[in-house]
Amino acid sequence: MGISARLTVSRDVVAIDALVKKVSNVDPNSTLLLGSALLNLSALDEKDNLVGYLCLDDVPCARLGHAGGPAEVWTQEAAGPRFKLGSTAFVRVCTTDPLYEIEAASALLRAAFLLIPSLQTLLMTAGGELSFTEPGLASVFSRVASSKEAGGAVLYEAPREAVVPPLTIRPARVEDHDDMLPILQRCERAFPALAKLPESSRPEEPFALTRVVAGQDDRNRVLVAEAEGRLVGFIVMTSDVDTGNLAETFDLHPYDNFLPPEVYEQQYEEARGAVRERKLTALRAEAARRRQEEEEEREVEAAEAEGGEGEGEQAAATLPSPSAAAAAAAAAAARGSGDGARASVEGEAAGGEQGEGGEEGDAAGAAEPLQISPEEAAMLAEAEPTDEETRGEMLALFAGTPLEVEPTLFAVTMLCMDPAFEAQAHEFLGSAFAAFHDKLYCVVTLPHDSHEPALMETMTRIAPLPGSLFPEVLFMFHRHALLPDFCVRLGSPEDLEQVATLVSGMPNAPDICASFTGAAAAGTAAVALCQGEVVGLCTVNPEVDLELLQANFALASHVDLAYQPRPQHGEIDMYTMNPIFVHRHRPFLAAAMRLLGKTALYYALPPGQQPPDMQEVLAQVAPRHRTAFDKQLQAEFALYAFTRAGAFKRRRSVNAQIVIAGASECGLAVLERLLLDTELQFNYLTLLAPGGIKVGGMVCQYTAGVIARLGLEARVLLLDAEMTGLEREPRVVHLSDNSALSYNQLVITAGLQDQSRYRFADADPEVAGLLVTELELAADFSMNDALVMNDIVVYGGGLGAYHALSVLEAKSAIEKTRFLAPPGQAAAAPLVGVLSHMALELGLALPLPEPLELASLAIVKPVGPELHATAVVVDPAEPGAAPQEAPCDLVVGCEPPSVSRALFACLNDASLVFDGRLVVDSAFRTNDPHIYAGGTIAKLSRRYGGAHLEHYNSRDVGTKLAASLVACFTASAEKASESGDAATAAAAALPPPPAQLTGLHRARAVGCSLPGGHHFMFAGCPAALAAPGVAPPPGGSELVTTTDRGQTRLTLDDGGVVHALMYLGRVPVSAQRMGCLVGLHSSYLNQVVRRHAAGEVRDLLAFLTEPWAELLYNESFGGLREVLLETGLASVSMGDKAGGDGGLVQWVTSVQDTLLEFARAHASELPGYNVPSAART
């Protein structure tokens, strides 16, 4: 029978409670255990039925069903000597279906030890003997103590070796070939990069593996692992490693560039001295030049003051030219600096005082210490090299230089394991370091598109240097990470000396020591120790502003505040761990939580701050896009959480290089979905954002606050560059800064943009500084700009033009502004037609553009730092008329957006199918399966309907696109082990696109501010955006209210579903918030149709923003609605079996309970909703 174990999830709770009640006749309250225990595991049969449950805790406790006052007290006394936090755990619950007891118990216990590598012993207090009732547990647990006074309680112990027998590691022999070959063949499919035979073994010929084994020597070793009497894996290693190539590609300085420490220090100091000399030479030359200029000025002034005009001329004639004097001084300074700082100091201290006699000067110089002038001291301080400068100089000095010493590493070139024992691959490391007894590091490289084997979980991923095109990921493991006796305890003031040693060299070392001192005194610090030495520390702030966190983040997805009260939450204030022990982050934080009485720890990461080194084990909390209006509750940081429930949940690493070209809302949504994925961790994300990430506008879904809460800088490489070239075969993107990027998946989300800047800049690049978009205007235009600029042109007839005019009006620059648009452009914009219609009904006069074309711009002679241009304006209606010339200080481009010519040329040269838009299938893939596209730049192929994606909500499209990427990586992981060969696996990794694009529920909202303090908003479904208008769709209806606050229009389709919502008036509305109503049936809107017909709704906007509607605007309402619909369909489908009511009563009861539970879980977000004391009425 195939019994498997996995981490317990919330949907298991009902089945767990039922199983425990059935077997032990006690209530486990598994919901509480899920959030407070060390580890929760579920055992499942082949049909995914729950057949076992294991709960471990890291405080002394008796097993459920045997707990009681005497048993608990005795357990603490009896287990005290055996308990060590971090390596020991107690069994709180272990329940299995009697039919699967042996298999389920074995699977649960094995999974527990493999998930927590630091776990060495399990303890369990139970009543009586296990032999007859639970043979699965009895086979691994041994009786170590008992007590009649404690009700016959017995303390059992299970060491790791009894549950997970260690592998037997030995050197490979030639006769192992036949046992090694099947394992190799399996790994060629699952992990081809680590199953590739070296070229020296002639892999195309038979018995290549035998030649690898036979070729062992001092520099090449092969080890095999045996278990259960058979060979289950092997590893191939070599010490012939090109460290120079690695040093040019990765940041290896924390690891001494894999050189002996004394050699690294010598190179470091040599490079440091070279940088210092170079900087000092330049500083002295500059100082000499300044002194010479000052001396010349003084002499000229003195000459002018002493004599008449003739004397002044004579004095000036005798002086060398300033440039010649400066050159001579610089040359003299360069000659004088040959011996470095010391020679210069000696010269300045003694040179001026020693006369021709010299002897007294020599004696004085020998007797007195050297005096350094303030100027020289300042130069010495300024010339001190930074760490980055020194490392760059080391690369320049020693790159490509043959090493005269042996590097301190060996590399794993092959690793092949039986799948049943893959989790034990780390056991090779001890024997591997024994085989290379003089090496400190073990390294592994994997291609970016390779899956990570289990061994990588114990290793450190090394960051590549910026701009690196190295095609592989580098992992490292240090010999000392094998040291035993890792434990965790509360920090004390006596640890300060070791803490100072641990953080020495860090720029904020004094702050860390000060924080630790205060936390240790307050009892809120924990330290990790290995063989008695402090290797890690964590300080925690016990006070957490939960209201702030709940208002800005989806905290309910990680914690349940009903079971985790405020005292159980803490904020990580300071954290550091010796890089050698980074694989111990999880057990350290889990133990620290237990010591400090916490079930959830949070880490707040403000923009610009370096992410913590344990970030990979933290779960990012999703930011809210619609937050409280109270400015005091606006968080400007990203939030990460480490909880008891998720402490040992590992997301599968994805090292594929994913490049997102374009920081549009669709591109940001792709990143958000990938960053927040609960199963996969994407390690190499790059965003091309030319000009930075631009946010703003009343319809913006990614405000500055949301960007800050996403924490893009922590996990995404942000580049201020755009794509200028694309090579599909090597998968390389060329950028506008002349650099290049490798990619495994390219996502094009550049979007449609106003092209005025590019069109005019192509003719005259100098005018680029005068051209801005309406978003750039809103973000950067200041009152000072309004004062210094006299002639501003808003060019274009779209909604953006009206928004630009409102910005200029707010900055008192509207009188200096000229509004131009090509004839007919404004009329051709459908949404401008909707705006004009509503404005006409309200009696609101909109500014109309002059029907003129802006033919060209030319820079006039600059006056000061500001640019000024002459604009040439023509009237297409009068072809023979002379062009007008007008001064221009700024042009705001608001033309209909389109694809940039540069991007189109790039895509066209790469032979990507382009039909007005980039053509994609329903999985957002172009004709190249490694290139995706979404947002306004893309359209579906005709096979999938041909719809333009610009009519859909960009955030919805980006989320769906990212889900397609996630499905690709998920499918590739599953198919790699199932397919017959690597090529088949690669093909099967791409799931077929769905028959049609579904799941896009959010409305797309557009709008703008208008001059005069008015606001316009239009939110609609894709059909409404494709043909916008004020009239309802055929067969539909509309609700309209007009008040002194403005006009609101709600259109419904023939099924009563909200088709579009429009508003024009003086109230600033949230377009994204109001757009939540689009797609809902009118029955959700509090009987709005009936009430409007009865005259009860006089102002639709006011009615739709009353407290009753808050639930509809909640970000989680869409998920709640789906649950209710699924529940209703399931209940009604079972109606015939349920009785005469057709399942309606059951459905109503279920809906009621679901709504009450939702209101309870989101109470802080729904302050206007009261949860009744009774669950049912």
From TrEMBL:
Residues 294-312 have a biased composition (Acidic residues). Residues 6-258, 408-561 form the Cilia- and flagella-associated protein 61 N-terminal domain. Transmembrane segments: none annotated. SUPFAM superfamilies: Acyl-CoA N-acyltransferases (Nat), FAD/NAD(P)-binding domain. Residues 313-323, 339-348 have a biased composition (Low complexity). Gene3D superfamilies: 3.40.630.30, FAD/NAD(P)-binding domain. Residues 1001-1112 form the CFAP61 dimerisation domain. InterPro entries: Acyl_CoA_acyltransferase, CFAP61, CFAP61_dimer, CFAP61_N, FAD/NAD-bd_sf. Residues 288-323, 339-366 are annotated as: Disordered. It comes from the Eukaryota. Keywords: Cell projection, Cilium, Flagellum. PANTHER family: CILIA- AND FLAGELLA-ASSOCIATED PROTEIN 61. This is Cilia- and flagella-associated protein 61. It comes from Pleodorina starrii.
